[in-house]
Specification:
289 residues; alpha/beta
Length: 289
């Protein structure tokens, strides 16, 4: 009688069990139901999977120092953040102040979105005054943004403009003093700039800011917002209690509507990042945590 042949040992795929298939227990591996020799897609709740991925992404984001992208408003420039930037740097964050052209909201948005797209993330984007309109557009759909901070700013919803947003709150006295030049750009007269824009700033510094103000297109008041980024990202809002440019009541309305964590800058006027840089920096650092 011939000797029985030794059965060939089955070839094991990498990671497979040596137990017989009949006794193999099922294993769930990242979206696949796996048994010996078979693999089929599992029924996965896609919404849960996306939410879980977002939570995980946020967790790992927060392990890294955030880059802070600072967006100035109308009749201003990037130097308006000069007292806030050292405080952010001292806390270990990179800070970048964008210089917008102020020729139109779409031009400003393109400039800011271009800067945002260069950053890996996490990014906390900060907008002052009309910079709030800009970041509301620029951060829409931006996956690298981990938080937004509005500082004495407009925060329009879809279909709103700064003008329509502000109408229920009335006009402040400062609105009657803006001057529009032949190119359709507005400024505040230098002698009135300290009175309305920054009365709580040292007089010498206020005069420098008046001389350096960037003429801005008057059409920006009527710019109609698209889908707002503040509906997509965690938000903070610095409300200036004595603002003479944007009504404090309007700021509180925007903060409450977006569900922002609010900071009240007591006694602060519009240029709070110059008069109370510590308050603004603290709000930004909280957003970066």
């Amino acid at each position: 009688m011939a000797c029985p042949r030794t059965p060939a040992r089955p070839t094991r795929s990498r990671g497979a069990s040596s137990r017989p298939a009949s006794r193999q227990s099922a294993t769930i591996v990242r979206g696949h139901h796996r048994t010996f020799g078979t693999s089929r897609p599992a029924r996965v709740n896609s919404a849960r999977a996306v939410n879980a991925a977002r939570v995980l992404f946020r967790y790992y984001e927060r392990q890294l120092p955030a880059t802070i992208l600072l967006v100035h408003g109308a009749i201003a420039d990037g130097s308006s953040w000069s007292r806030v930037i050292p405080l952010l740097q001292a806390a270990g964050h990179e800070a970048i102040a964008v210089q917008q052209p102020l020729s139109s909201i779409p031009d400003d948005v393109a400039k800011v979105r271009g800067a945002l797209d260069e950053l890996a993330g996490p990014v906390v984007i900060v907008g002052h005054s009309f910079g709030g309109v800009v970041i509301t557009q620029a951060a829409h759909g931006a996956a690298n943004v981990s938080g937004m901070v509005y500082v004495a700013a407009f925060a329009p919803d879809d279909g709103e403009s700064a003008q329509s947003l502000g109408e229920p709150f009335g006009q402040l006295e400062s609105a009657s003093h803006f001057k529009i030049d032949k190119q359709g750009r507005f400024t505040l007269p230098q002698d009135l700039f300290p009175t309305y824009f920054c009365p709580d700033v040292e007089p010498e510094q206020a005069r420098v800011m008046a001389a350096a103000q960037g003429p801005s297109d008057a059409a920006r008041f009527g710019f109609v917002s698209g889908p707002p980024a503040w509906r997509e990202h965690p938000t903070h809002f610095v409300v200036c209690e004595n603002d003479q440019i944007i009504p404090p009541a309007l700021q509180r309305f925007c903060a409450e509507r977006m569900g922002a964590k609010s900071t009240i800058a007591e006694g602060a006027c519009h240029a709070v990042m110059v008069s109370q840089p510590e308050v603004v920096a603290q709000a930004i650092l909280e957003a970066a945590r």
